[in-house]
Amino acid sequence: MIIAVATVIIKNDILLNEQNYIYYNRKLYGNGVGSIDPNRKISLNRSNELDEIAIDDNEHKAEVRIGFSEFSKGLYENTKNKILKELNASEEDWNDYKWQLKNRIISVDEISKYTDLTDEEYDNIKKVGAKYRFAITPYYFSLIDFDNPNCPVKLQAIPDIKELDEEGELDPMKEEQSNPSGRITRRYPNKLIINVTNACPVYCRHCQRRRLIGNADKNTSKEDIDISIDFIRNHPAIREVLITGGDALLLNNNRLEYIFNELSQISHVEVIRIGTRVLATLPFRIDEELACLLRKYRVQLSTQFNHACEITPEAVRAIDILVDHGVLVRNQMVLLHNVNDDKYCIQKTNEELHKYRVINYYLFHPKDVKSTKHFQVDISKGLEIMKHLEGRTSGMCKPTYVYNAPGGLGKVPLVPMENIDCTEDRYRFTTWENKIITKDFKH
Fold it and tell me: Does an H or E element contain 70, and which?
């Protein structure tokens, strides 16, 4: 006879008491009236603990702006309509990536057409823009919430007076000293980079190659590309080639195919990758023709989404085209102060990417690039974020956190220090819940 009813679970609108528990236990296991499987009871208590963690995480993640929210959609449509009206353009124009590039916002006067700037903001943007060129596609500009001083898109795209603090290095990775031929950067034994353009849809304010932006967009000459490919042809150790820039997908399809075809005829080149941010800044560049071209040469794609608000319906349309054509898409996020240096922001962004079939690849610690000091964070912040992700999200939502060693010495993977320790005779591990376990050395 059941005398007392004790609540087992009452979180997130689930009520399971011992009376119901006995019923389900008997139904599933036939243990007899009144018997309670102790393992199932322990499991339910543990499940309740995990519910509490998940509920707390979800409450915090709900505060992270995403590209699919009604707020983001409304913001986008409102600014988009202002731009179309100002430029006397159509929806068809808007969806044309060449129109987007032709109509990039490149001056403070253009910015002020679509939002109210204070005199100080106007002067600051003008002053910084005179020293460091900027350009923003109408699409990416339409993601900016100008009412939020810490809008992650605004911080990445609009010049900031803090850029006049020139602390840092123009070339912290010493790419200019890792250039054996043509437009190559080589830092590893079996892979290298070909830099094919300095052009980007948006000149991100944190860019590691801002020294190359200059005053005009310029693609690498065919001669320099051929010299670079000849170098690869003559170095059998090279199995992987990353084509980057600038943004490599600003080359037209004919030039891209020329490069892909030349590389594909080199027997020791096994992997061709392309680096691009168009999925976040110019998603209309992705169409069936480009996806078929990438698939033809089995080109893998590395992109950069730094915040969940960049993952919009337009961006997902582009992702879907690529993935549906069999193109492997990986994300390389940069950890940036006030943009995404928050554990729930990183978790939500990675989960959004995972949902839309993008592989979370790297979380880059920001490089010490000249005039980007305001984006810098301490390594402890990145380690805190990585510790948070352990156990709280899928392993496929956990990128590798890496620090690029200065001087072009390569990537150093970083993991929370408390995760593993050892004494003379045993290992000591810390789990995602900070529980300590040990394992003896195997001699």
Answer: helix 70-87
